[in-house]
Each structure stands twice: as C-alpha cells, then as structure tokens.
C-alpha cells in the first residue's frame, strides 16, 4: 500500500521541476521564491551550517571584510541573512549570488536592492571559473539536485577551487519519511506556489550520503570535505581550507 502512495526512493528521479521550466508561470515562481525564506529558515538548517563552518572565520575578522559566493541563489534570502549576520559582528560581507534563470535573477535583485554589498549575476555553476576570482566562503543550498549526475563532480571541484577558507554544499536527503512529512507540511502551509509539487520532486531528486561521497571521490576531493546527514532530511558536504585567524 505504501508503495502506491509514496514513490520509490531507491534511485534519483530525473524529471524536471516546474521552476526549472522557463515557460512556467512567473507569478507562481515568484510566490515560490518568497516562500524559500520560510522554508530555509525552518527546514533546511542552512543558517546552522553557515554558523558552524563560516562563523569562526567571521568572528576572527572583526572590523574587516569577507567575501561569499552563493551558488544558485534563488530568492537571495541566504545572502541577505549572511550579510546581516556579518554586520552584527562588525564584519562587512561582499556577496556575489549567481543563477541562470533571468526571472530568478530579477527577483533576487529586487529583494536585495537595499543591500549594496550584494550583487546578483547570471552565471551557471559549471562556469564559476569565468568569475575570475576567489571567495572566502562558497555556499550552495539545494543546487545539486537540479543538476544531472554527470556534471556534479565538476561543479563540486569548481566550487572547492574558488573557496579560500570554507565551502558548504547542502541539499535534500532522499528518504520516504522526508517525502511524507514534507507532503503533509507543504499541503497546509505552502500553497499558491510551486513549492508543494516541486518540493516533493526535489526530495525524489535528492541524495543519500553514499551518492554524495561518490560524487566527492569523482571530483578528486575525498578527504578534503566531509559528507554528513542532518536532521530534518538534509545531506551536506562541507569543509575548511584554512584555520580561522
């Protein structure tokens, strides 16, 4: 009976999400981007990961400036939060957000318009090298599940190469209980957007720790980044390249 209600999570689903369709409804897309702020605040643990892996470096830079690359920036909510997090610690954060959907870029620029330290540019994750610079921190939240398996190792390698101090890559854990829990929560709280349908597809397109570790090995980064699961229903790769000082 369960298999009829909850799809198999044995392998990654390869179907496209609504928000990845350039012809999808723009108002529904914008509503989804607005809801990302709530989703990321309460469900994804992105702030916890940033405090854990970036926080010690920020604390050591009082009165100075740090830089962050946000890969797949979506609505810009993480960039805005990180800017405020640094400012509260007397640190200036110069943040570059990249995405490829013109509609998403336009929305992120609108929401970040009051932050002169945040810029949003059109750049695919596969071409980070074209930015021709490195950043203290590199962050990617819910990016990898939008990508086909064959390009993920290269993207991981690119992000690692441009990170001077620390890298965090967080995504969805592909588990049936996560699918059921999200279905119940999103059905009540995330209406009038793509978040219900796409969130469930995201879980089916997500990863387990073995798959992320395999991608890490293919990228030539085994031993340089850790792969962990994180409640509720998250998996991540993260690591530091230098000691905070």
Q: What strand line-up does the widest sheet have?
A: 3-2-1-4-5-7-6
Mean pLDDT: 95
Query: What's the story with the biggest beta sheet?
Result: 7 strands, mixed
Q: Which word captures the global form?
A: globular
Q: What's the helix count?
A: 10
Please give a structural write-up.
The chain is an alpha/beta fold and 245 residues long. The protein has a domain of 164 residues: Rossmann fold (3-Layer(aba) Sandwich). Helices cover 41% and strands 20% of the residues. The protein contains ten helices and seven strands. It has a seven-stranded mixed β-sheet with strand order 3-2-1-4-5-7-6, sandwiched between helices. It is globular and about 55 Å long.
Q: Could you give the topology of this structure?
A:
Layout: H1 2-5, H2 26-42, H3 46-53, H4 55-59, E1 65-71, H5 77-87, E2 92-99, H6 102-111, E3 118-122, E4 135-141, H7 152-162, E5 163-172, H8 176-189, H9 195-204, H10 209-218, E6 226-230, E7 234-240
Parallel strand pairs: 1-2, 1-4, 2-3, 4-5
Antiparallel strand pairs: 5-7, 6-7
Helix pairs in contact: 7-10, 8-9
Concise summary:
The chain is 41% helix and 20% strand. It has helices spanning 2-5, 26-42, 46-53, 55-59, 77-87, 102-111, 152-162, 176-189, 195-204, 209-218; strands at 65-71, 92-99, 118-122, 135-141, 163-172, 226-230, 234-240.
List its salient traits.
245 residues, alpha/beta, Rossmann fold, seven-stranded mixed sheet
